[in-house]
User: Which sequence fits this backbone?
């Protein structure tokens, strides 16, 4: 009993030290450079705890793309190293192992994805699903990895699985985009128009419809493209920056090409499934 009291007291001291460090405040503020330094200090004091390694990994990953979308892979490489160390230390923490492991696997998979290490990303999302089979985030992200890998039929199949566990319109949007990439253009456009009616504040839907209409060889559809574009900009002005679209939405190649042409050909020339880091080096 005395041993348990001592362990509980140490855990409370650990939590208080994290709070007093200001690391969580820096994280919420979006000051990832400062947050990384503060988590490093916590790691120096508590080297056996998994949480600080996970959080420092997230802070490093957040710095992989700067405001001009230039890619800095060294941050993701450092993040993966931190996630590996966090995974190795999970047994020492008070948090339920499954909960923390899911967080670590998702964050590490995202880093692997951006590094173009697609198989490792898929493996980590699969690990999440072995712990929680209806984890919608893991299902959707794994599907997107397969898309960037160029395996579009598998991506579409996995998005259909994700729809069974989540009613999020974002999943339906992604499924329509993959359907378009596979050549089901009429079906994709019908789905996107229906989604636009049901979700009038979803900018991605309106941008996607703009791209579809702009790629249509029928000149009459260009006026329709302009109309949907105006609605998209009214919802989210940042869509006017093709680099923002590229990094934010990570579309299949066809539709990215369409919106790039609509915006005058600026931005990275290549789209998925080429790894994002290779695409953004030329921005």
Assistant:
């Amino acid at each position: 009993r005395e041993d348990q009291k001592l362990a509980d007291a140490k855990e409370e001291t650990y939590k208080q030290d994290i709070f007093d460090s200001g690391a969580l405040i820096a994280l919420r503020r979006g000051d990832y450079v400062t947050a990384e330094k503060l988590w490093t200090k916590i790691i120096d004091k508590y080297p056996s705890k998994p949480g600080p390694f996970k959080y420092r990994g997230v802070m490093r990953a957040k710095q992989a793309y700067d405001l001009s979308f230039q890619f800095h892979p060294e941050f993701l490489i450092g993040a993966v190293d931190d996630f590996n160390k966090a995974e190795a230390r999970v047994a020492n923490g008070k948090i339920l192992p499954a909960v923390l492991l899911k967080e670590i696997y998702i964050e590490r998979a995202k880093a692997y994805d951006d590094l173009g290490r697609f198989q490792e990303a898929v493996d980590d999302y699969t690990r999440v699903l072995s712990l929680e089979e209806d984890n919608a985030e893991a299902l959707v992200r794994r599907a997107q990895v397969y898309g960037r890998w160029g395996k579009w039929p598998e991506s579409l199949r996995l998005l259909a699985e994700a729809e069974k566990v989540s009613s999020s319109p974002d999943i339906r949007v992604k499924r329509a985009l993959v359907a378009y990439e596979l050549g089901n253009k009429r079906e994709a456009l019908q789905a996107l128009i229906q989604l636009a009616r049901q979700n009038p504040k979803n900018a991605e839907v309106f941008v996607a419809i703009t791209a579809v209409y702009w790629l249509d060889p029928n000149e009459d559809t260009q006026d329709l493209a302009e109309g949907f574009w105006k609605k998209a900009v009214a919802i989210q002005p940042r869509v006017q920056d093709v680099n923002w679209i590229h990094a934010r939405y990570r579309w299949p190649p066809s539709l990215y090409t369409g919106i790039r042409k609509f915006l005058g050909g600026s931005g990275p020339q290549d789209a998925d499934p080429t790894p994002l880091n290779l695409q953004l080096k030329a921005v």
About this structure: The chain has a mean pLDDT of 89. The longest helix spans residues 2-21. The radius of gyration is 21 Å. The chain is about 75% helix and 0% strand.
